[in-house]
Amino acid sequence: MNRKSRKVKKAIIAAAGYGTRFLPATKNQPKEMLPIIDKPIIHHLVEECVDSGITDIIMVTRVGQGIMEDYFDSHIELEQMLDTNGKEDLLKTVKEIPTLANFVYVRQKKNLPYGNGTPLLVAAPLIDNDEAFVYMFGDDLTISKTPVTKQLINVYYEQKPSAILAVQEVPDNEVERYGTVKYKKKAKYKYEIESLLEKMPLGKNPSNMAQFGRFVFSYDVINQVKKTPTGKDNELWVSDVLNSLAKKGARVIAQPIEGEWLTTGDPLRYMKTQVRFALEREDIGREFSEYLRSLKL
């Protein structure tokens, strides 16, 4: 089976950061384990993968993050307690967590450069040279009818590019926070890009279409990341990898997504994400909405 016909079954989740914006809460736990109501951020990412047909999840972590491995493992004592107390729904929920996918954990060692492209180097030995895979940042969440990851996979099957990145339009006052894309004027597919520019000030940004942490990559990206030098702030950037591919004539697609991208990258946006997820919940959404309306802000 060649690269273009293999199903996308693997995902790499980058979860090796220090979460310094959330100190002291992240002193002894990864930011990815902070809850969105009653599930950690990382659990939501895994569920999006699973709902998109992913079976194998590679988590790139760092020293001190064994809590994530424990979370996605069985907890016999807890299960026994829930069983004894007749809490069947909670027991079912807890027992399902280890069965969501096949989990593999790899450590990002300190000899490697820092940057959002580094987890690709770490996980490269676990990717076959004829398969595509999903790549996710550990702090971006989405709300959509069709999982955003599934949307990207569908475009990959249809267009067979070297890489796809998810983008969503952001307002002018947010542009400088993200990488924004410059689309080609003439291309086989209308969302092919010429370049991706990181954190450009308003007026120098090529568009308001901002990249966030959802990608589908072919092995072309693995080959390229191994050859890409560190860039701004001596970090290894995904944007530099994708720009190098695009300059070589490879097809790189920046796909607008259907749905809503929510980031947990800082406390303010984390709290906004909490609110949006709470409002989506069938069990608490209505009452929470009534509470928000009752506040005299």
Automatic annotation (TrEMBL):
Give the EC number(s) under which this enzyme is classified. 2.7.7.9
Which Pfam families does the entry link to?
NTP_transferase
One of the protein's GO biological processes: UDP-alpha-D-glucose metabolic process
Q: Which UniProt keywords apply?
A: Nucleotidyltransferase, Transferase
UniProt-listed InterPro entries: GalU_uridylyltTrfase_bac/arc, NTP_transferase_dom, Nucleotide-diphossugar_trans
Q: Which GO terms describe its molecular function?
A: UTP:glucose-1-phosphate uridylyltransferase activity
| Nucleotidyl transferase domain ranges (all copies) | 10-273
What reaction gets catalysed by this protein? Answer: alpha-D-glucose 1-phosphate + UTP + H(+) = UDP-alpha-D-glucose + diphosphate
Q: To which protein family does this belong? A: Belongs to the UDPGP type 2 family.
What is the protein name for this chain? UTP--glucose-1-phosphate uridylyltransferase
Species: Candidatus Woesebacteria bacterium RIFCSPHIGHO2_02_FULL_39_13
Organism lineage? Bacteria, Candidatus Woeseibacteriota
